[in-house]
Amino acid sequence: MRKLVNIFGKRSSWALPYALFLAIFVALPLLLIVVYAFSDNDGGFSLQNFVKFVTQPEAVNTFIYSIGIALVTTFLCILLGYPAAYILSNKELNRSQITVILFILPMWINILVRTLATVALFDFIHLPLGEGALIFGMVYNFLPFMIYPIYNTLQKMDHSLIEAAEDLGAKPSTVFWKVTIPLSMPGVMSGVMMVFMPTISTFAIAELLTMNNIKLFGTTIQENINNGMWNYGAALSLIMLVIIGISSLFSDGDGQNVENEGGLI
Question: Helices 230-263 and 48-55: crossing angle, nearest 10°?
Fold first, then answer.
């Protein structure tokens, strides 16, 4: 009994359940992906899975197409999300917190339910399912993930800097472009990562909104794993994880630089 009291009496001991959770559900799956990716069907070390990806034009084209869809979706989410976040964070333009809840409300609903509702909407207005429906569905599903980080950053922004710029004679447009946007860039970069990364790896949205006529990279991974091709599917997953990891490193660096520059304005 005393041993248990001594173990759980330390603050560091309370981190053990979280460390165990990370080891089992984060580190172990990633390790298995790496092991399967560099293994052949007999369990031996092999690079044939990566060679297969490079030598298959269909897989490479799907990967490039998925990045293109992700870039278009992210751009549209920024285009629509930044003005919405700005309006929501401005007390003069938005005096009710209910509006904020309405924008965040879709995040409370399962993504498959939202996608099925989009399919029903296109069917109701007699619009064909395809690439246009795919981009619409992507933007609809991931737009709240762009709005909320930007809104959160704008809410916590030091408004005395805006007042200082106005006192120095800066026009509203100058204040917005020279002060507000630079200071809000960390939120924009967070939103970009929250939209760009899931868009590349998703497969359910593409299957439902294109009647499985358009494949994304996530669909290719899912099909290979469902067909028992674990090694090749793991290699594709690892390629996607590496690309996402590299992009997140660049975004973290850019966000910190912008934040530092914003603090000097």
Answer: 80
What are the angstrom distances between the C-alpha of 83 and each of 37, 55, 89, 107, 141? 43, 44, 10, 19, 18
pLDDT at 31 over 90: yes
Token pair of 207, please? 């299957």
15 three-state secondary structure: helix
Residue 220, CA distances (Å) to 161, 205, 238 in order:
49, 13, 13
**Is the pLDDT confidence value at 259 over 50?**
no
Q: How far is CA 35 from CA 29, 218, 225, in A?
A: 10, 20, 15
Domains of the chain: 49-263 (1.10.3720.10)
User: What secondary structure does DSSP assign to 47-73, as a single string?
Assistant: -HHHHHHHH-HHHHHHHHHHHHHHHHH
Q: How many angstroms separate the CA atoms of 251 and 114, rounded?
A: 29
134 CB-near residues (< 8 Å, 6+ apart): 69, 205, 206, 209, 210, 214
The Cα 138–Cα 209 span in angstroms is 10
> Which of these, 30, 29, 27, 8, lies nearest to 19 by C-alpha position?
27
Q: What is the pLDDT of residues 86-119, one digit of tens each?
A: 988 887 777 677 777 787 787 788 888 999 999 9
SS3 content of the chain, % helix, strand, coil (to 5): 80, 0, 20
Tell whether the model's pLDDT for residue 264 goes beyond 80. no
Half-sphere exposure of 235 (CA within 13 A, CB side): 21
Cβ(154)–Cβ(100) below 8 Å: no
The first and second tokens of residue 61, run together, are 């084209």
Output the pTM of the full model. Answer: 0.81
